[in-house]
Sequence to fold (386 residues):
Amino acid sequence: MIILLDENIPMAEHYFSEFANAGLAETGKGELRFKAGREICAEDVADVDALVVRSVSKVNEALLKDSPVRFVGSCTIGMDHIDTNYLDTRGIAYANAPACNANSVVEYVFAALAHLACDWQGKRLGIIGMGNVGSALYRRASQLGIDCLGYDPLIEQDRYPVLASLDEVLSCDIVSMHAPLSHEGLAPTYQMIGEPEIAKLRPGTVLLNCGRGDCLDNRALYRRLKNQADLKTVLDVWQDEPHIHSELLPLVDIATPHIAGYSYDGKVLGTQMIAKRLADCLGKTLQAEQSVGEHVQGVSGSEATTAFSAIQQLIPHCYDIRSDDQRLRRSMEHHPNEFASEFDRLRKHYPKRREFFHFRLEGVELSSEKEKQRLEHSLVALGFSQ
Fold:
Protein backbone atom coordinates (compact mmCIF):
# COMPACT_ATOMS: atom_id res chain seq x y z
CA MET A 1 0.00 0.00 0.00
CA ILE A 2 1.35 3.39 -1.02
CA ILE A 3 0.36 6.26 1.28
CA LEU A 4 1.06 9.93 0.58
CA LEU A 5 1.12 12.11 3.71
CA ASP A 6 1.47 15.78 4.49
CA GLU A 7 5.03 16.12 5.76
CA ASN A 8 3.74 18.11 8.75
CA ILE A 9 1.91 15.15 10.31
CA PRO A 10 3.69 14.09 13.53
CA MET A 11 4.45 10.42 14.27
CA ALA A 12 3.25 9.47 10.79
CA GLU A 13 5.77 6.66 10.44
CA HIS A 14 4.88 5.31 13.89
CA TYR A 15 1.19 5.01 13.00
CA PHE A 16 1.18 4.34 9.24
CA SER A 17 4.27 2.24 8.52
CA GLU A 18 2.43 -0.98 9.36
CA PHE A 19 0.10 -0.43 6.38
CA ALA A 20 3.02 0.11 4.01
CA ASN A 21 4.85 -2.91 5.43
CA ALA A 22 1.79 -5.12 5.11
CA GLY A 23 1.34 -4.04 1.51
CA LEU A 24 4.97 -4.74 0.76
CA ALA A 25 4.66 -8.24 2.21
CA GLU A 26 1.33 -9.02 0.54
CA THR A 27 1.66 -7.44 -2.91
CA GLY A 28 5.24 -6.18 -3.15
CA LYS A 29 3.88 -2.60 -3.09
CA GLY A 30 4.27 -0.59 0.07
CA GLU A 31 5.67 2.87 0.76
CA LEU A 32 5.17 6.03 2.79
CA ARG A 33 5.70 9.29 0.88
CA PHE A 34 5.77 12.80 2.28
CA LYS A 35 5.20 16.21 0.72
CA ALA A 36 4.25 19.74 1.81
CA GLY A 37 0.46 19.70 2.07
CA ARG A 38 -0.17 22.84 0.03
CA GLU A 39 1.98 21.50 -2.82
CA ILE A 40 0.27 18.11 -3.29
CA CYS A 41 -0.91 17.82 -6.89
CA ALA A 42 -2.53 15.26 -9.20
CA GLU A 43 0.83 13.92 -10.34
CA ASP A 44 1.71 13.04 -6.75
CA VAL A 45 -1.30 10.74 -6.32
CA ALA A 46 -1.07 8.97 -9.69
CA ASP A 47 -0.19 5.63 -8.03
CA VAL A 48 -1.23 6.28 -4.44
CA ASP A 49 -3.71 4.12 -2.51
CA ALA A 50 -4.31 6.42 0.47
CA LEU A 51 -3.92 10.16 1.01
CA VAL A 52 -3.47 11.64 4.50
CA VAL A 53 -3.56 15.44 4.74
CA ARG A 54 -4.17 18.45 6.94
CA SER A 55 -6.39 21.47 6.30
CA VAL A 56 -4.12 23.20 3.75
CA SER A 57 -4.63 20.48 1.09
CA LYS A 58 -7.59 20.86 -1.26
CA VAL A 59 -8.91 17.37 -2.01
CA ASN A 60 -11.30 17.38 -4.96
CA GLU A 61 -11.89 16.03 -8.46
CA ALA A 62 -8.99 18.02 -9.92
CA LEU A 63 -6.63 16.23 -7.54
CA LEU A 64 -8.06 12.70 -7.57
CA LYS A 65 -9.73 12.31 -10.98
CA ASP A 66 -7.12 9.96 -12.46
CA SER A 67 -5.82 8.44 -9.25
CA PRO A 68 -6.35 5.04 -7.62
CA VAL A 69 -6.80 6.64 -4.18
CA ARG A 70 -9.41 4.76 -2.16
CA PHE A 71 -9.01 6.43 1.23
CA VAL A 72 -8.60 10.10 2.21
CA GLY A 73 -7.88 11.02 5.80
CA SER A 74 -7.59 14.51 7.27
CA CYS A 75 -5.78 14.70 10.61
CA THR A 76 -7.82 17.79 11.50
CA ILE A 77 -11.27 18.50 12.85
CA GLY A 78 -12.56 20.29 9.73
CA MET A 79 -13.67 18.89 6.37
CA ASP A 80 -14.27 22.07 4.35
CA HIS A 81 -11.06 21.42 2.35
CA ILE A 82 -12.39 18.05 1.13
CA ASP A 83 -15.05 17.65 -1.57
CA THR A 84 -16.94 14.85 0.13
CA ASN A 85 -19.65 14.84 -2.55
CA TYR A 86 -17.07 13.95 -5.18
CA LEU A 87 -15.51 11.29 -2.95
CA ASP A 88 -18.96 9.77 -2.44
CA THR A 89 -19.53 9.53 -6.20
CA ARG A 90 -16.19 7.74 -6.58
CA GLY A 91 -16.75 5.44 -3.64
CA ILE A 92 -13.63 6.78 -1.91
CA ALA A 93 -13.68 6.35 1.87
CA TYR A 94 -12.81 9.40 3.92
CA ALA A 95 -12.39 10.41 7.53
CA ASN A 96 -11.42 13.35 9.68
CA ALA A 97 -10.37 13.60 13.32
CA PRO A 98 -13.17 15.43 15.14
CA ALA A 99 -12.19 17.07 18.41
CA CYS A 100 -8.54 15.97 18.16
CA ASN A 101 -7.30 19.52 18.67
CA ALA A 102 -10.25 20.95 20.59
CA ASN A 103 -8.33 21.04 23.85
CA SER A 104 -5.41 22.76 22.13
CA VAL A 105 -7.65 25.53 20.78
CA VAL A 106 -9.33 26.01 24.15
CA GLU A 107 -5.91 26.40 25.78
CA TYR A 108 -4.97 28.91 23.06
CA VAL A 109 -8.01 31.01 24.00
CA PHE A 110 -7.04 31.11 27.67
CA ALA A 111 -3.39 31.78 26.82
CA ALA A 112 -4.53 34.78 24.75
CA LEU A 113 -6.75 36.10 27.54
CA ALA A 114 -3.97 35.70 30.09
CA HIS A 115 -1.53 37.54 27.81
CA LEU A 116 -4.04 40.37 27.34
CA ALA A 117 -4.49 40.53 31.13
CA CYS A 118 -8.19 39.86 30.60
CA ASP A 119 -9.23 38.31 33.89
CA TRP A 120 -12.25 36.22 32.93
CA GLN A 121 -13.82 36.39 36.38
CA GLY A 122 -17.07 38.33 36.09
CA LYS A 123 -16.86 38.45 32.28
CA ARG A 124 -19.42 37.08 29.84
CA LEU A 125 -18.10 34.83 27.06
CA GLY A 126 -19.88 34.56 23.72
CA ILE A 127 -19.07 31.52 21.57
CA ILE A 128 -19.87 31.47 17.85
CA GLY A 129 -20.07 27.87 16.70
CA MET A 130 -20.88 25.19 19.28
CA GLY A 131 -19.31 22.20 17.56
CA ASN A 132 -16.45 20.15 19.00
CA VAL A 133 -14.24 23.15 19.79
CA GLY A 134 -16.92 25.64 20.78
CA SER A 135 -18.63 23.17 23.10
CA ALA A 136 -15.26 22.22 24.65
CA LEU A 137 -14.62 25.91 25.33
CA TYR A 138 -18.10 26.23 26.83
CA ARG A 139 -17.51 23.30 29.20
CA ARG A 140 -14.12 24.60 30.32
CA ALA A 141 -15.38 28.16 30.77
CA SER A 142 -18.40 26.96 32.73
CA GLN A 143 -16.11 25.01 35.07
CA LEU A 144 -14.28 28.29 35.67
CA GLY A 145 -17.53 30.00 36.58
CA ILE A 146 -17.65 32.12 33.42
CA ASP A 147 -21.12 33.16 32.25
CA CYS A 148 -21.45 31.91 28.64
CA LEU A 149 -23.71 32.44 25.65
CA GLY A 150 -23.47 30.40 22.46
CA TYR A 151 -24.68 30.85 18.89
CA ASP A 152 -25.09 27.98 16.45
CA PRO A 153 -28.18 27.80 14.23
CA LEU A 154 -27.15 24.41 12.82
CA ILE A 155 -27.64 22.38 16.00
CA GLU A 156 -30.74 21.55 18.04
CA GLN A 157 -31.53 24.71 19.97
CA ASP A 158 -32.15 22.78 23.18
CA ARG A 159 -28.76 21.02 23.15
CA TYR A 160 -27.14 23.62 25.39
CA PRO A 161 -28.96 25.91 27.84
CA VAL A 162 -26.80 28.87 26.79
CA LEU A 163 -27.81 29.07 23.12
CA ALA A 164 -28.86 32.58 22.16
CA SER A 165 -29.12 34.94 19.19
CA LEU A 166 -26.06 36.23 17.38
CA ASP A 167 -26.77 39.76 18.61
CA GLU A 168 -26.76 38.53 22.22
CA VAL A 169 -23.44 36.74 21.70
CA LEU A 170 -21.91 39.85 20.09
CA SER A 171 -22.85 41.85 23.19
CA CYS A 172 -20.55 39.73 25.42
CA ASP A 173 -17.26 40.95 26.91
CA ILE A 174 -15.35 38.21 25.07
CA VAL A 175 -16.44 36.84 21.67
CA SER A 176 -14.68 33.71 20.44
CA MET A 177 -15.29 32.36 16.92
CA HIS A 178 -15.16 28.62 16.25
CA ALA A 179 -17.54 28.20 13.31
CA PRO A 180 -16.71 25.90 10.37
CA LEU A 181 -16.66 27.44 6.89
CA SER A 182 -19.65 27.02 4.59
CA HIS A 183 -20.77 28.97 1.54
CA GLU A 184 -24.33 27.65 1.23
CA GLY A 185 -27.08 25.96 3.18
CA LEU A 186 -29.44 27.28 5.84
CA ALA A 187 -26.82 29.38 7.61
CA PRO A 188 -23.67 29.94 5.52
CA THR A 189 -20.75 31.09 7.61
CA TYR A 190 -18.68 32.83 4.92
CA GLN A 191 -18.11 36.37 6.28
CA MET A 192 -20.87 35.78 8.84
CA ILE A 193 -19.17 38.43 10.98
CA GLY A 194 -19.08 41.39 8.62
CA GLU A 195 -19.44 45.15 8.84
CA PRO A 196 -22.85 45.19 10.61
CA GLU A 197 -21.83 42.57 13.18
CA ILE A 198 -18.45 44.17 13.88
CA ALA A 199 -20.23 47.50 14.44
CA LYS A 200 -22.26 45.86 17.23
CA LEU A 201 -19.17 44.95 19.27
CA ARG A 202 -18.94 47.22 22.28
CA PRO A 203 -15.71 49.16 22.93
CA GLY A 204 -13.35 46.99 24.98
CA THR A 205 -14.69 43.71 23.60
CA VAL A 206 -12.11 40.95 23.13
CA LEU A 207 -12.67 39.31 19.72
CA LEU A 208 -10.94 36.02 18.89
CA ASN A 209 -11.10 33.99 15.68
CA CYS A 210 -9.71 30.48 16.04
CA GLY A 211 -12.09 28.80 13.59
CA ARG A 212 -11.92 29.63 9.91
CA GLY A 213 -10.48 32.87 8.53
CA ASP A 214 -13.19 33.43 5.93
CA CYS A 215 -15.91 33.53 8.58
CA LEU A 216 -14.70 37.00 9.62
CA ASP A 217 -14.55 39.89 7.15
CA ASN A 218 -10.96 41.00 7.69
CA ARG A 219 -11.37 44.20 5.70
CA ALA A 220 -14.35 45.26 7.78
CA LEU A 221 -12.38 44.52 10.93
CA TYR A 222 -9.48 46.56 9.56
CA ARG A 223 -11.77 49.56 9.04
CA ARG A 224 -13.12 49.33 12.59
CA LEU A 225 -9.67 49.07 14.15
CA LYS A 226 -8.20 51.81 11.96
CA ASN A 227 -11.01 54.23 12.73
CA GLN A 228 -11.65 53.42 16.40
CA ALA A 229 -9.01 51.00 17.77
CA ASP A 230 -11.37 50.18 20.62
CA LEU A 231 -11.36 46.36 20.45
CA LYS A 232 -8.88 43.76 21.67
CA THR A 233 -8.36 41.33 18.80
CA VAL A 234 -6.80 37.88 18.53
CA LEU A 235 -6.55 36.32 15.07
CA ASP A 236 -5.15 32.86 14.51
CA VAL A 237 -6.95 32.36 11.20
CA TRP A 238 -7.15 34.85 8.35
CA GLN A 239 -9.01 35.51 5.15
CA ASP A 240 -7.24 34.30 2.00
CA GLU A 241 -4.57 32.32 3.89
CA PRO A 242 -1.67 32.28 3.42
CA HIS A 243 -2.03 35.68 1.68
CA ILE A 244 -3.22 37.53 4.74
CA HIS A 245 -4.26 41.18 5.07
CA SER A 246 -0.90 42.85 5.67
CA GLU A 247 -2.43 46.15 6.82
CA LEU A 248 -4.63 44.42 9.39
CA LEU A 249 -1.83 42.51 11.11
CA PRO A 250 -0.21 45.55 12.85
CA LEU A 251 -3.59 46.52 14.32
CA VAL A 252 -4.26 43.09 15.87
CA ASP A 253 -3.23 42.54 19.50
CA ILE A 254 -2.28 38.88 19.05
CA ALA A 255 -1.57 37.52 15.57
CA THR A 256 -0.60 33.89 14.95
CA PRO A 257 -0.28 31.70 11.80
CA HIS A 258 -3.21 29.27 12.16
CA ILE A 259 -1.65 27.27 14.97
CA ALA A 260 -4.25 27.43 17.76
CA GLY A 261 -4.86 23.70 17.37
CA TYR A 262 -1.19 22.87 16.89
CA SER A 263 -0.35 21.37 20.27
CA TYR A 264 1.82 18.31 19.82
CA ASP A 265 -0.66 16.24 21.83
CA GLY A 266 -3.58 17.28 19.63
CA LYS A 267 -1.73 16.63 16.38
CA VAL A 268 -0.58 13.18 17.51
CA LEU A 269 -4.13 12.33 18.54
CA GLY A 270 -5.30 13.33 15.04
CA THR A 271 -2.67 11.09 13.47
CA GLN A 272 -3.73 8.18 15.64
CA MET A 273 -7.43 8.69 14.88
CA ILE A 274 -6.89 8.65 11.10
CA ALA A 275 -4.62 5.61 11.29
CA LYS A 276 -7.36 3.79 13.17
CA ARG A 277 -9.96 4.80 10.57
CA LEU A 278 -7.72 3.51 7.79
CA ALA A 279 -7.31 0.23 9.66
CA ASP A 280 -11.09 0.00 10.02
CA CYS A 281 -11.53 0.55 6.27
CA LEU A 282 -9.07 -2.26 5.58
CA GLY A 283 -10.76 -4.57 8.05
CA LYS A 284 -7.68 -4.60 10.26
CA THR A 285 -6.76 -3.62 13.81
CA LEU A 286 -4.24 -0.83 14.34
CA GLN A 287 -1.15 -2.33 15.93
CA ALA A 288 0.83 0.84 16.71
CA GLU A 289 0.91 1.65 20.39
CA GLN A 290 -0.49 4.92 21.64
CA SER A 291 2.10 7.66 22.03
CA VAL A 292 3.41 7.85 25.59
CA GLY A 293 3.30 11.24 27.34
CA GLU A 294 6.21 12.90 29.08
CA HIS A 295 6.69 13.57 32.81
CA VAL A 296 4.89 16.48 34.44
CA GLN A 297 7.00 19.63 34.77
CA GLY A 298 6.76 21.80 37.88
CA VAL A 299 6.50 25.56 37.38
CA SER A 300 7.11 28.09 40.15
CA GLY A 301 4.45 30.66 40.89
CA SER A 302 6.18 32.19 43.88
CA GLU A 303 5.74 35.79 42.68
CA ALA A 304 1.96 35.55 42.36
CA THR A 305 -0.25 37.64 44.64
CA THR A 306 -3.66 36.65 43.21
CA ALA A 307 -5.13 33.57 41.56
CA PHE A 308 -5.19 35.26 38.15
CA SER A 309 -1.58 36.50 38.44
CA ALA A 310 -0.55 32.92 39.27
CA ILE A 311 -2.30 31.68 36.12
CA GLN A 312 -0.63 34.47 34.14
CA GLN A 313 2.78 33.27 35.35
CA LEU A 314 2.02 29.62 34.72
CA ILE A 315 0.52 29.67 31.22
CA PRO A 316 3.55 31.16 29.36
CA HIS A 317 5.69 28.29 30.72
CA CYS A 318 3.29 25.89 29.03
CA TYR A 319 2.52 27.94 25.96
CA ASP A 320 4.06 31.35 25.31
CA ILE A 321 1.58 32.79 22.83
CA ARG A 322 3.66 35.97 22.65
CA SER A 323 6.46 34.03 20.89
CA ASP A 324 4.07 32.88 18.16
CA ASP A 325 2.90 36.46 17.70
CA GLN A 326 6.45 37.80 17.50
CA ARG A 327 7.57 35.18 14.97
CA LEU A 328 4.70 36.09 12.66
CA ARG A 329 5.40 39.83 12.90
CA ARG A 330 9.14 39.36 12.33
CA SER A 331 8.44 37.29 9.22
CA MET A 332 6.19 40.01 7.88
CA GLU A 333 8.83 42.63 8.58
CA HIS A 334 11.79 40.71 7.14
CA HIS A 335 10.05 38.97 4.21
CA PRO A 336 7.21 41.25 3.08
CA ASN A 337 7.33 39.93 -0.49
CA GLU A 338 7.44 36.26 0.53
CA PHE A 339 4.97 36.34 3.33
CA ALA A 340 2.68 33.58 2.04
CA SER A 341 5.55 31.10 2.02
CA GLU A 342 6.72 32.42 5.39
CA PHE A 343 3.24 31.86 6.82
CA ASP A 344 3.41 28.21 5.76
CA ARG A 345 6.99 27.88 6.96
CA LEU A 346 5.99 29.00 10.45
CA ARG A 347 3.33 26.29 10.51
CA LYS A 348 5.64 23.62 9.14
CA HIS A 349 8.40 24.35 11.65
CA TYR A 350 6.14 25.04 14.61
CA PRO A 351 7.83 24.35 17.99
CA LYS A 352 6.71 21.37 20.03
CA ARG A 353 3.96 22.61 22.34
CA ARG A 354 2.57 20.42 25.10
CA GLU A 355 -0.85 20.81 26.65
CA PHE A 356 -1.56 22.03 30.18
CA PHE A 357 -1.74 18.55 31.72
CA HIS A 358 2.04 18.28 31.33
CA PHE A 359 2.55 21.07 33.89
CA ARG A 360 1.97 21.65 37.60
CA LEU A 361 2.07 24.95 39.53
CA GLU A 362 4.30 24.94 42.60
CA GLY A 363 5.39 27.29 45.38
CA VAL A 364 2.42 29.66 45.43
CA GLU A 365 1.68 31.43 48.73
CA LEU A 366 -1.49 33.52 48.54
CA SER A 367 -2.62 35.40 51.63
CA SER A 368 -6.33 35.44 50.81
CA GLU A 369 -8.25 32.22 51.44
CA LYS A 370 -10.71 33.22 48.72
CA GLU A 371 -7.87 33.60 46.19
CA LYS A 372 -6.40 30.26 47.26
CA GLN A 373 -9.70 28.54 46.58
CA ARG A 374 -10.10 30.31 43.27
CA LEU A 375 -6.61 29.27 42.19
CA GLU A 376 -7.13 25.65 43.17
CA HIS A 377 -10.43 25.54 41.31
CA SER A 378 -8.98 27.30 38.24
CA LEU A 379 -6.03 24.93 37.95
CA VAL A 380 -8.33 21.92 37.95
CA ALA A 381 -10.77 23.52 35.48
CA LEU A 382 -7.97 24.52 33.09
CA GLY A 383 -6.57 21.00 33.08
CA PHE A 384 -3.24 21.45 34.86
CA SER A 385 -1.75 18.52 36.75
CA GLN A 386 -2.16 18.48 40.51
Observations:
- The two ends are 45 Å apart (CA to CA).
- The longest strand covers residues 2-6.
